[in-house]
Amino acid sequence: MQTIAQLTYIPLYSDHPKEQVQDLIEFVAQHDVEVDVNYLSTSVKGDTDVVFDLIRDIYDEMTLETKAFRLHVELLSPTDE
Q: How far is CA 67 from CA 11, 20, 31, 61, in A?
């Protein structure tokens, strides 16, 4: 099964939010998912387990690196692709 997740990461109280968002995009690109970067969000598509593991990895990584953030995740229903 394949899942698509739309991710919006918002660093709060940051002097360099664009750099933090770029770091996250680079982090996501290291995973086994298709990545589509848009102006306000990034979409990832891949095996359902990989996508859910990636969401957890993002949350853990940003918790270590950022004092405060928002991570919005929207999931589309899985496909058989």
A: 8, 12, 24, 11
pLDDT digits (tens, 9 = 90+) for 49-78: 999 999 999 999 889 877 799 999 999 988
Strand order in the sheet with 42-47: 34-37, 42-47, 2-11, 69-75
Query: 3-state secondary structure string, the chain?
Result: CEEEEEEEEEECCCCCHHHHHHHHHHHHHCCCCEEEECCCCEEEEEEHHHHHHHHHHHHHHHHHHCCCEEEEEEECCCECC
Evaluate the CA torsion angle 56, 62, 64, 68 in order and state its sign: negative
